[in-house]
Design goal:
The protein is an alpha/beta fold. The chain contains 7 helices and 7 strands. Helix 2 links the parallel strand 2 and strand 3. Helix 1 packs parallel to helix 6 and helix 5 packs across helix 6.
Length: 220
Amino acid sequence: MTPPVHAAVFASGSGTNLQALLDHETANGPYRIVVVISDRGGAGALERAEAAGRVARVIEVRNRPPEEVASETLSLLESLEVGAIFLAGYLRLVPSAVVSAYRRRILNIHPALLPDFGGMGMFGERVHEAVLASGAKVSGATVHYVDEEYDTGTIVGQCPVQVLPGDDAPALAARILNVEHRLYPIVAEHVCEAWADGRVPGPFTLSPGELGSALERNAL
């Protein structure tokens, strides 16, 4: 791939992680979001895409065969020369044909430290409620490759977030979302730099101090 890598973002909701990825883009950066795809008409992510001058498309999933969804999706991605996919609050399982075509080129961000608190049905406040119910002292955010199952792909990067005494699900969710908005763009940049250079991306690994500095530099 030559820089910038053309990226698609899949989102089902308001698209705050999409916005973080858009805000992190630079003229000479390693990725450029060219299209936003949602399974829901009226999703806030589509409005954010249009406001940023990007292609916004709805690809319906409900009551459609996965093969049909995959065919429509791949046709759109190929027409825009998309080389990477970033899931940002996309609540559908990506069709296996799309995963196969973009093997280890699809990223997702999950609001917990996988492999814990992941899997089918674990999204939004359900994740944070499960963390709190478990008594865990640390949660966080995880960026991982997407495979054919929910939240089982290889982990690329993580950032821990302390669970504080008195936390409820909304409070923990808000602190982790703030980290997501800063972690996701720098991990996306990390993998796209490798792809643009013809390298296989390694894990995104920084010491706690280096990670804290990187997050602060990329604060929104």
